[in-house]
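Protein modeling request. Please complete all fields; requests missing the sequence field cannot be processed.
Requester role: graduate student
Desired output: 3D structure, token encoding
Chains: 1
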Amino acid sequence: MDGIINVYKEAGFTSFDVVAKLRGILKQKKIGHTGTLDPDAEGVLLVCIGKATKICEYLTGKDKIYQTTLHLGITTDTQDISGNILKKQEASCLNETELKRIIHKFVGKSNQVPPMYSALKVNGKKLCDLARKGIEVERKAREIEIFSIDIPAVDMPFVTMRIHCSKGTYIRTLCHDIGELAGCGGCMENLLRVETAGFSVENAIRLRDIENIAKGTDQNGRKLCDILIPIDEALKDYPKTVAKSGTEKILQNGGKIHSSQTKDALYDAKGLYRVYTASGVFVGLFRYSKEREELKPEKMFL
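Delivered output (302 residues):
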């Protein structure tokens, strides 16, 4: 079984829990996810199975869209509502127009300091494990980019936000930082990952439904092949090129092919391409060298 499942991660499960449960449901060991979600968070968690685990790195680095509720007036040690309250302040006096102006200041590139309560490792130790022991360590700020923040609702002290951001962005920290700039503090009330790598929450499948599908007891009559996303479809952001007949043996052996051995003539320098055989079989991701005019295999799936 090779492919990707768009899993709806429910609150109460860690990303590791989802992978562990799927190993049992699918009876397959080679499984990995493409981006950690906090236990209280919900939404899209792409899970790669079999050969698809080779593309985890390509999916993890994609932009993401989240929906969250910012709770103004409360500061916690975890930067979300599940943590210990450190401070309470009045937020009702904030002007909505001014608040939106403050929030939109965070759009663009910036340096964000990861929270202590995160799965990020420093010197081989998870920050969250250190935080639970009362240990705080220095964290290096990392460059992130917020592409857009939409604010569909303001019902003080709650602010609903839809955020399109780069990988590595901590929405909890964004909520905390907005609250600090607003002068009243703030934390994240809830979090839903709406989209990642082009896969949306509307098509995500809950674990209990995947289990029913695997057992053959799904009410809609779905089979595993119906929910398993092919590897090449998950890589659809990369352009497709088809090799000419006679190159099959070279491709099967993981060899390079010249651009003249494909049906396409134009390539971008240092671009990644999905390469297919003349009969339409997906071979893998190849990187094009403009100097040598050749495609070199980077990830093979034959």
